[in-house]
Amino acid sequence: MISVFLVDDHELVRAGIRRILEDIKGIKVAGEAQCGEDAVRWCRGNAVDIVLMDMNMPGIGGLEATRKILRYTPGAAGYLSKGAAPQYVINALRSVHAGQCYIASDIAQQMALSQLEPQTETPFSCLSERELQIMLMITKGKKVNEISEQLNLSPKTVNSYRYRMFSKLNISGDVELTHLAIRHGLFNAETLLSSE
Predict the structure, then answer these.
(1) Contact 191/80 with Cβ under 8 angstroms?
(2) Where along the chain do the CATH 3.40.50.2300 domains lie?
(3) What is the pLDDT of residues 84-103, one digit of tens each?
(4) Burial group, residue 172, by CB count within 10 angstroms (0-12, 13-18, 19+)
(5) What DSSP character marks residue 47?
(6) 195, 49 Cβ separation under 8 angstroms
(7) CA atoms of 134 and 16, how far apart (whole Å)
(8) 45: how many CB neighbours lie within 10 A of its CB?
(9) In whole angstroms, how far apart are CA 66 and each of 37, 72, 117, 175?
(10) How much is the average pLDDT of 25-44?
(11) C-alpha span between 128 and 130 (Å, rounded)
């Protein structure tokens, strides 16, 4: 049974998602919150498999709330747009629960296009495809060992890519990398999933 915690500032959205999930065998809604602060508090005191988090909320917002939750519960992550069909949501939940990353195709396409279009030039344009892939995994909270396992690379190779990225982007660590990604719109997805 996959337990899911819903976080969205719109009660109607939560009710709709809850209704979809309640009809699926093997998935149950364990609780709900309407803001990031409440989500962090709830997750500190309760065990849940997946947090389904709205990215754009008042207060600390979904991304920051997820980062706080991931500090004490390691996890995979995925991104969906709110327009995703119910079956995509269910597939995403199952993928994340299995420890895989899930990025909806429309969001992956937006990310890829943002790297190709000259009018949306970003600092990340200087990164190779592999560096960009690792950068996205780092900004989603993945640790070096998780990245090396998922990409079938040694931790030493992953670290080499990290330090090369840091040098190219003129930054000194993962936190700065994440802030840079946020500033340049690589986190424009509306919904974030994180597996505890």
Answers:
(1) yes
(2) 2-104+187-195, 106-183
(3) 788 888 888 888 888 777 76
(4) exposed
(5) -
(6) yes
(7) 34
(8) 6
(9) 10, 11, 30, 14
(10) 92
(11) 5
Determine whether domain 2-104+187-195 maps to CATH 3.30.930.10.
Answer: no
Q: What is the pLDDT of residue 106?
A: 58
CA-wise closest residue to 81 among 59, 60, 58, 111: 111
- 186 within 8 A of 124, measured Cβ to Cβ: yes
Q: How far apart, in Å, do the first and last CA atoms of the chain sit? A: 14
Name the nearest CA neighbour of 90 among 148, 25, 33, 134: 25
Instruction: Pick left, alpha or beta for residue 185 (phi over 0 → left; psi -120 to 50 → alpha; otherwise beta).
Output: left
> Residue 30: which residues within 8 A CB-CB, separation 6 or more?
3, 4, 5, 46, 48
List, in order, residues 6 or more apart from 168 with CB less than 8 Å away.
126, 127, 131
Q: Which fold has domain 106-183?
A: Rossmann fold (3.40.50)
Listed in sequence order, the residues at least 6 apart from 165 whose beta carbon sits closer than 8 Å to its beta carbon are: 127, 131, 134, 135, 177
Q: Which two tokens stand for residue 170?
A: 């003129």
pTM beyond 0.70: no
**Gap between the Cα atoms of 170 and 177, Å rounded:** 10
